[in-house]
Amino acid sequence: MRLITLILLMLSFGFCASSQNLLILTKTGHYRHASLPDAIKAFVEMSEENGWKSTFTEDSSFFTKEILAKYDVVVFLLTNKNILSDEQKKAFKNFIQSGGGFVGVHSATVTEMEWFWYGQLIGARFIGHSGVQKGRIVIENKEHASTQHIEANTLIWEDEWYSLDHSPREDVNVLISLDETSIETKEFQNKSMAMGDHPIAWYHHFDGGRIFQTQLGHRSELYQDPIFRKHLIGGIHWASGLSN
């Protein structure tokens, strides 16, 4: 078990009247983001600031019906590939169907690529990226908790731009999209990464649960960015049912 798990496995914070219980999974099945330590540090600080009781782990054995019932929101933080057993998938599905919240950060769309139900939950699947570069993101919804702090209609943002197997717009509520004319759309494994309609962050109700996904969050520096932190905090508040 990785050292970070030993240190952070049961790191938690005192309850308050509005305390939310978060299970933050950082398990990876393949590529490991260099930004993960900074992402964890940011979630520790956000937990302290917001009164969340957060459990950080790379151990998917937490995914039992009994353990998940203790949490309000499950966060997949920079996860990827296959990370849950069949029994753990059943427990996670039960958690969502029981009204649980889910937040996916960046590579959650590269996670459990062969699980059909999870594909519906997350909204769309990763097919590649155009690398890290500056691009223009469009704030489509300023009323949601994850975007209401952003005053501008567009922002120049440096990130790794994921492309998806389809635009999830018909099935989700898009919050932020990428203006593809603002980046160099590259090929990934001989496939064009151009999508046309290119959602970056969205939310929806799915199978009884509340789902928030943001494709942002590749670079370490972003986890110190107050705009990005408020984006994540708002997403968690919405997923936990604290905001509409």
UniProtKB/TrEMBL annotation:
Gene3D superfamilies: 3.40.50.880
UniProt keyword terms in alphabetical order: Signal
Keyword field contains Nucleotide-binding: no
Every ThuA-like domain range: 22-239
Pfam families for this protein: ThuA (PF06283)
Cited InterPro entries: Class_I_gatase-like, ThuA-like
Signal sequence interval, chain numbering: 1-17
Domain of life: Bacteria
Name listed for the protein in its UniProt record: ThuA domain-containing protein
Species this chain originates from: Seonamhaeicola sediminis
